[in-house]
UniProtKB/TrEMBL annotation:
It is found in: Membrane. This is Gamma-aminobutyric acid receptor subunit beta-like. The gene is Lcch3_1. Keywords: Disulfide bond, Glycoprotein, Membrane, Receptor, Repeat, Signal, Transmembrane, Transmembrane helix. GO terms for molecular function: extracellular ligand-gated monoatomic ion channel activity; transmembrane signaling receptor activity. The chain crosses the membrane at residues 692-717, 724-743.
Amino acid sequence: MDADNNLYRWVEGIQVFTFQGDGVATESSVAVYEGDVRLSRKVYSLTFCMRFKIFFLQQRGTIFFLQETAKDRFWMLRGEVWVDKVRVTISHTWHFMPLDIQLWAFRWYHLCFTYNHTSFLIQTFLDGKVVQHAYYDVGQPVFGDYIGVGNGQAITESYSGVITQVNVWDKVLSDEDILSIAQCRADPQGNFVSWEAGWTLYNATAEDVPLARLCQEEQERIYFWFPDTTDAVAQYVCEALGTHLPIVTSLEETLYLYELVKTMWPDSDHCPVYYWSSLNDKEEEDVWVHSYNTSLIDTISFWAPNEPNGGRYENCVAINYFGTIDDDCAWKRCALCTFTEPQRFSFFGTCEPELRNVYFVAYQEEYGGLLFKSYGAYHIEKRNGTWVYFDTVKDQDIATMEPFDPDFPMGRRWWKLEREVCGQENPGRRLMLLTPCLSHHFTCDDGTCILHHYRCDLKYDCRDRSDEMECELISFPQDYHQHLPPRVPGKENSKLPVTIKFTIKSIDVQTVKMSMKLSYELEMIWFDNRLNYLNLKTNDSLNNPRLDAMMKLWSPLVKLLNTDTIDQSLLAEDANTVVKRLAKSLGRDEGAAAEVDIYSGKENPLSVSRKYSTVYACQFDLTLYPFDSQHCDIHLQIVSGQVSFLDVHPNSSVKYLGSDVLNEYQISELRVLLEEGYDSGETRVRIPMTRLYGNSILTIYIPSLILMIISYLTLFFRTAIFDVRVMVALTALLVLATLFAQVRPL
């Protein structure tokens, strides 16, 4: 039966190989292929698949390699994994494929590479989905006469973990076929390399596993036991390990825990009486809530007979042989932490360039103890009562933890350096963080986790309130100078574009005084490539630097050229400064003892705004009064020192929020003027106005006309009432004189 007909062949069990289960690197751990492999068999297009589970990583983990032994060509076909990337080698051409996710230890992954020699397309599939692709003309076929799995001819390339279903086809499988294999719906065998063709194992073990089980992560529980702890310490330990204290919902669950500890630690004291639970009623009597979420009220716990009965004197909860009881929080009981899979811990503040030395897994190899092993070469272990950060390859202590209560390394701790870390020489002390929190979380000082965007959001989310501490937003370089504007390296003669935004709230035109009083907000936006920003929020209103940091910033000097007050500094205590998040993070700060995302000042601008109330001088031409149109300008220039290296950005704008109709004028569309004749950094904001002549006609011309008519009508008065005639004429002249006096300044 050919390979195509076998593509969807179902099987009962799959052979699984385990290499270096203890994590000790060796060159002799390998599985050698016993199938048909000859130099005459050449592959042009191919599909290369494997399923694996990492335990530990050396510099990299080599899952598969094809070699031409006569010429020592080890790189004919090879698949290698790191934490954050994979690499496929095809006929001595190397292709790194970054992953959007990071690989976890002790989890199954299915990985495939395809290469089409006609289109030159190389694709990477992780768990059945395309995650990366590239185009490259390999230029020659794949061939060889030796195939190995689980090693790469060097101890730094050896593999620690489980491998199965390694197959190579001499064609490109469809996306649907690859997804079917990844989801364990089929187990087709490759027609160039077949997993079922046979392997000879050297320092490796094999077992048969049902196909479906490879896609179902094992839910075997992991238990850590800690005797003689108070409730507060028990809550901390389990939550800082990434889980919670248990609750029991039946008597059977209670009895199971008591039998379990006897089986796991037969020589211990078995935590014989009580285990702490995650419940308490500290906030409201007889309302039992979970310590990690006080809004979650318990309704399912199995209480022992006549419990709870301690009233306000017993506000914590323990589990004894008969079920759940309320208990005194100060008593020392046993803490039991339960996991469904090994947790991944991150050790921050070490500046480790390799992620395999950043990520750790917790083990309990002795009753009440803890040991943290990295994916790579480092351990965190307790030695002679002191926690030690240890390099197992160099057999060298890196740092020792300063005494802390409770005596566990999870959370933010001070360490005494035994060798250089992040460029910091020993002896010295350094703050570092061991955390189970995921990448989108922030770790509180006590090791518990909150969502990352809750940090520095002006409200407390951590129980120890550490999320609102150390909220620095701006990272200044050592050579930063406030009096120097940002300059682009290599383009020192270029000018910094500054975007100006005017928001005018009210306009008061004084025609007689030839002036205009404005109430407005002036905002300037620019990029400062010298700066980095930390943990920017999507909500810009939360990206306000502290006052002391704001006053260290460079900002343009504003020259208001048609006012009495010419120079205005934009930065002041009443200014509003924000950083606008426009670009993605550059990554995490490897030297920070926290989850600190770094954003570039080159891609995320600074915005400084300030409110003003200013009187501007205007030049009105009243020749056509009252049928005239006028304009008044805000004439300004932005400079830096005596010489201006600044330009006004074309995206500058003005917005008017008030009424378009004033007492005398109708406001037209406002605009920002940028003209060639202007000096560097100079601009005008033009406010055009059309006079409302109806008001002048009603208040000046019509009254004058009426008075003139009245004066003229006095000529028709009888001479007998000459005195009345004179009185009316004089009154009309007096009123006209008054109107003239009012209009004369115009």
